[in-house]
Amino acid sequence: MSIDLSKAKASGVLSEDVLVQTPGYPLGALKSAGKPLVMIECAQTIPCNPCETVCPFGAITVGEPITNLPVVDAEKCNGCGACVAICPGLAVFLVNMDAGGGLGTVTLSYEYLPVPEKGDTVRALDREGKYVCDATVDKVVAAKSYDMTKVITITVPAEHANTVRGIDHRRGA
User: Which of 57, 119, 123, 130 has a 20 to 30 A CA-CA distance from 10?
Assistant: First the structure.
């Protein structure tokens, strides 16, 4: 699969125009899912398949050759999140654009200290690290199998759920 990277931002950050070309970015399914769904923001044709090997439901496939882009089968994804911490490129997210009450959720990997705690208010950031909105930390998972990576779920206004891809929890930042 060939991705037109000419629409990537000068910063190197993939824009949604580029991401919708990738088979790991099921935006149409996300908008109607009403549940967390895996979004893989990867356009790199490099040897990599941990997301495929860890998915217990076969919702993510890379296949042969191992340089294929990951493909998401939204119907098979149950939002378990096993794939989030395993991605070495931090390019896998769970997104729910309709968690109820005008809210959405984003689950992302987090590799910084200190680690925010459930109930904390954090600054939600977009793909370029720019502030989008405040968010509430709903869950922090620090499984031994995640090799020091934490998986954090935050709540944001629903209209920002597919924009937020990071957090900054420093006070006054």
Answer: 123
Mean pLDDT across 23-43? 84
Phi, psi of 20 (to 5 degrees): -65, -15
Domain ranges (residues) in the chain: 5-168
Distance in angstroms (rounded) separating the CA atoms of residues 6 and 153: 32
Q: Distance between CA atoms of 168 and 163, rounded to whole angstroms?
A: 15
What is the chain's mean pLDDT, rounded?
A: 89
End-to-end CA distance of the chain: 40
Amino acid at 171: R
Distance CA 117, CA 32 (A): 30
Each residue's pLDDT tens digit, 124-173: 999 999 999 999 999 999 988 888 899 999 999 999 999 999 999 775 44
Distance CA 45, CA 109 (A): 21
Cβ(81)–Cβ(151) under 8 Å?
Answer: yes
Q: Tokens standing for 49?
A: 């398949």
